[in-house]
Amino acid sequence: MITRDQIIESLAFLSDDSQKIIVVYGLREDMSVLKLDIHRDHLSALLDMMRDSVRERMIEKEYEVKSYRTADERKSYYEYDMDEEPDEIRLLREIPGNDDIPKFSFNDNTISELNSLILVITNGEHTISVYKDISGVEKIYTRRRYIIKKSGQQFVRETEDMLSISASFHMIRISGSTVLTELDLLEKRNGFKNIIVNQASRDAQRVNNKQIVSNFDYFKAAIEGDISLSKKLIKALSESPVLNIDNARIITFAKTNRRLRDKLDYTADDTQIQLKNKKQIPWFLKLLNDDFLRSQLSDEDYESGNKDMIQENRAQN
């Protein structure tokens, strides 16, 4: 897992005196790639803008880097560590140094074809690549708007479609690691959705092997049909020791815990959990994630998906 200190060290070249270049690639819906031939007299301003954006978000900003498998609702940066990778991440890895990518041609291509950009910054020794989606407002179609610009002392109409490149980015490739900085946006893309569901489907087999759920096929179908449940299962099985605990002990805990005891059903012999409806599945995932805690001070029960403090304490002991 890459650390924030390692990221800062890897990005130090952005601030040194070495000569740097920036190259821009456009991605179409089918994930085919075109190199944008930007006039060299205008590349320095783009380089400065993106360099400042990367330094601001990755060096100056305070953040934590976590495993994507354990992604939760908290705003953090996540290192991608799934078994599969979406095309966007594959291209972040493959594009730098690839001289065979065709150029964008206004004779054959249009700005409307571009859905996202990959920008590569390098000084020859160090290289980073950043990915950003192109928002609707960044593709400017003159047939839909009356756009005027300065020409001498007058305004004249702009008749060519335009592309606006903002300083934002949604993930970055640094020293062999891909760091996701805008999780909510990225997970709207089908590539990410499909991989999350596929990973959850594979991870669910561990639940089946445990024989803790009597109607596993129903559980698996529900997980595969809901990306939120898929993410919760991946997180639970990445962090929790519950699957290593005897089934009888798990069921005894579930039936007696004050927060959980009325949320699940069981087989007649009390050897397995029986999930009768989809509302029960999040509670079962909380059980897998070992979310139910009891305060030694107040004897109150709590739910907590955040085990950072526990892990931190273990590391210190």
Task: Summarize this structure as a short list of keywords or feature phrases.
317 residues, alpha+beta, eight-stranded mixed beta sheet, two-stranded antiparallel sheet, 10 helices, 34% helix, 21% strand, elongated, disordered C terminus
Low-confidence stretches: 308-317
CA radius of gyration: 25 Å
**Structural class, from secondary structure content?**
alpha+beta
What does the largest sheet look like? 8 strands, mixed
Q: How would the global form be characterised? A: elongated
| Topology, number of strands | 16
- What is the terminal-to-terminal distance? 21 Å
Sheet with the most strands: spatial strand order: 2-1-5-6-11-12-4-3
Which range best describes the helical content: under 10%, 10-25%, 25-40%, 40-55%, 55-70% or over 70%?
A: 25-40%
Proportion of residues in extended strands: 15-25%
Count of helical regions: 10
The sequence of SSEs as H and E is HEEHEEHEEEEEEEEHHHHHEEHEEH
Q: What's the pLDDT, averaged over the residues?
A: 89
Give the secondary structure arrangement, pairings included.
Layout (H helix, E strand, L loop, with lengths): L3 H7 L10 E8 L4 E4 L6 H18 L4 E3 L9 E3 L7 H8 L19 E9 L4 E7 L5 E2 L6 E5 L2 E5 L3 E2 L7 E4 L2 E4 L2 H4 L3 H21 L5 H9 L2 H13 L7 H10 L8 E2 L6 E2 L5 H9 L3 E3 L6 E3 L4 H9 L1
Parallel strand pairs: 3-4
Antiparallel strand pairs: 1-2, 1-5, 4-12, 5-6, 6-11, 7-10, 8-9, 11-12, 13-14, 15-16
